[in-house]
Amino acid sequence: MTPSRLSIQDQVRAAVPMVLVAGLAAFTWWLVQSAPKLAGPDSVAKVSSAPDYELHQARVERYNAQGRLMAILDGQDMRHFADGDRLEIDAVQLSARNEEGQRVHAVAREGLANGVAEVVVLQGGAHVVATPASVVTVGKAMLGSSPIVFEGERLQIDTRERRISASQPIKVTNAQGQVTAGEMTHDERTGITQLSRQVRGHYDAPAR
Fold first, then answer.
1. pTM for the whole thing?
2. Cα gap 30→162, rounded to integer Å
3. What is the mean pLDDT of each run of 10 residues along the chain (208 residues)?
4. Considering just the CA atoms, what is the radius of gyration of the chain in Å?
C-alpha cells in the first residue's frame, strides 16, 4: 500500500469515533428536548377559573365536632371552584341552628359560600329570619324573643360567629318596629343589632 492510501485509511479510522460522539450528542439533545418539562418557579400551573363540578338540586350539610347538624345549605344549582374552595349557588336557602336553639332561615336569588358553608353571602332579594330561643337579656334590658327579619340586596351570615351583617341598605323588622339603615351588624349571641348610616324608622323598646 502506498503511504497516501494508508493516510486516508488512518483518517477514516480516526473520524469514526468523532462521528459516533456527534451522533450520540445529537440524540441526547433530542431526548432532552422531547422529555416532559418539570414545573419550576417560572412554570407553575395556574388554577382553572372554571368550576370543577356542578350539581343540580344540591345540599351541603355542616356538623359540629359532636356530630350535631348545625347548618343546611340548599341550592337549585351549585358550582364549586377549587380556587379558594368556594361555592356559587342559584336560588339559595340556608337553615342554621346553634346549641342554644337560636335559628336562622335565609333565602336569596344567589349565594356565595366557602366550601364548608360556614360563611354565606346572599345576593338579590335576600330575606333572613333570625329567631331567638328565648328572651335575651343584656344588662337590665330585656330584648324580647320575637323573630327579627332582615331584608336587603346583599347580606352575609357567619354561622360559626353567629353574626348577620350588611354593608348595603338594609331593612330590619320585628315586633318592636321597623328600621332602615345603610349598614348593619346583628350578633345572635347577645341579640344586639347595630345600625349605622342613614338610620330611619321607629322602634318601641320592650318594657323592663
1. 0.68
2. 62
3. 50 49 48 47 52 90 86 93 90 88 91 87 95 53 69 93 92 90 90 88 70
4. 34
Asked, for residue 208, whether it belongs to a domain, the answer is no
Same domain? For 70 and 8 the reply is no
Q: Which three cell numbers stand for residue 80?
A: 364549586
DSSP for 55-75, written as a single string = EEEEEEEEE-TTS-EEEEEEE
Q: Given the C-alpha cell 342613614, which residue does it identify?
A: 198
116: domain CATH number is: 2.60.450.10
Distance CA 45, CA 39 (A): 8
Residue owning grid cell 350588611: 166
- Count of C-beta atoms within a 10 Å radius of residue 8: 10
Which residues lie closer than 8 Å to 123 by C-beta, 6 or more apart?
A: 108, 109, 110, 111, 112, 153, 154
Instruction: Please report the pLDDT score of residue 138 as a whole number.
Output: 40
Nine-digit cell string for 5: 492510501
Give the length of the chain. 208
